[in-house]
Amino acid sequence: MAAMEEEQQKQMHKGKHDKDKPWDDPSIDHWKVDKFDPSWNESGMLDVSSFSTMFPRHKETYLQDVWPTVRAALREHGIACELNLVEGTMSVSTTKKTRDPYIIVKARDLIKLLSRGVRAPQAIKILDDEMQCDIITIGNLVRNKARFVKRRQHLLGPNNSTLKALEILTGCYILVEGNTVAAMGSFKGLKQVRRIVEDCVQNKMHPIYHIKILMVKRELANDPTLANESWDRFLPSFKKKNVQKKKGKGKEKKPYTPFPPPPQPSKVDKLLESGEYFLSEERKSAKHWQEKQEKQAEKTAESKQKREAAFIPPEEPVVQNENRSTDDNGDVNTLTQSLKEKTKAFKRKSADIVDPHAYITSEDAPSKKKKVKKHSKS
């Protein structure tokens, strides 16, 4: 039935433009980018096309060093380039040798990437047909500068780990600098990078959650059975949680009164109350000087006290003797009693009879001193 309806529709809308086209063949890959052949445009360009862009001053020295390599890369495609240090601009333009009409757009992207901080070896890769670039402006997505810096740091992660993971999963080169994010890669990868960057800066989803989703998609792509099915049931869903903040104690409401508050006294009223209003200028200045001197004296006294506090010696801890016979709370009478007993015992020992013969040397027995002398001589 469906085939019959299609045939009827073709017969109804048949015309000279409804013929089968040679490119309506399923075997042809319409996404494949063929390499440009100079024979397709032998006559060259009819008019000169040029683009220019400005660069920051701190990149001037780097661009001077790298410009010969950039010029050599563009010369192969027939593009002329110029670095103007006076005006701070880079410009590219077509020449008579230019054959590819789209190469001037690639050269424009090249000088844009150089001005955004991309290194020359990486930026020159944009001249390939399969390489595309996208410069995402993120500075105008957040008004608060502190929030902007914090969310931009989420793209980088600790030690640029989040950025490296995004580069591996999307297959794109990503550079976060200033208010822009420069990305280089395929159309599919650039679309993913733009979505991740905008969701991060607008605080819709953290890049870590995007990384988890991309990892799951990479695993599902390897399964041929799921090629024609929806992957929504396999992908993780991250819902934003609205965490309620604790309400602080508000100001106490004062009782309502229909009368307005009394007017506060002005400076003149205060001077009139203190009596300073009627003083002369000399007395006012003298009083002001005296108050200033008093405050200065208080400050000097405080500073002097702080300086002298450093020279006060600390209190030494009292060492208690472990071999004390009495405690601190012991009675003094016990101490005197023990001393008396010790003196009596000492007197008894001294009163004992001493044998004098023990101290008298006999004539037969040689003295110890002589023996020591003989021993020393020998």
UniProtKB/TrEMBL annotation:
Residues 131-221 form the KRR1 small subunit processome component second KH domain. One of its GO terms (biological process) is rRNA processing. Residues 17-27, 282-309 have a biased composition (Basic and acidic residues). Keywords: Nucleus, Ribonucleoprotein, Ribosome biogenesis, RNA-binding, rRNA processing. Gene3D superfamilies: K Homology domain, type 1. Residues 241-252, 368-378 have a biased composition (Basic residues). One of its GO terms (cellular component) is small-subunit processome. GO terms for molecular function: RNA binding. It is found in: Nucleus, Nucleolus. Residues 1-27, 241-269, 282-336, 359-378 are annotated as: Disordered. InterPro entries: KH_dom_type_1_sf, KRR1-like_KH1, KRR1-like_KH1_euk, KRR1-like_KH2, KRR1-like_KH2_euk, rRNA_assembly_KRR1. Residues 49-129 form the KRR1 small subunit processome component first KH domain. Its main location: nucleus. Component of the ribosomal small subunit (SSU) processome. Belongs to the KRR1 family. Required for 40S ribosome biogenesis. Involved in nucleolar processing of pre-18S ribosomal RNA and ribosome assembly. This is KRR1 small subunit processome component. It comes from Saponaria officinalis. The lineage of its organism: Eukaryota, Viridiplantae, Streptophyta, Embryophyta, Tracheophyta.
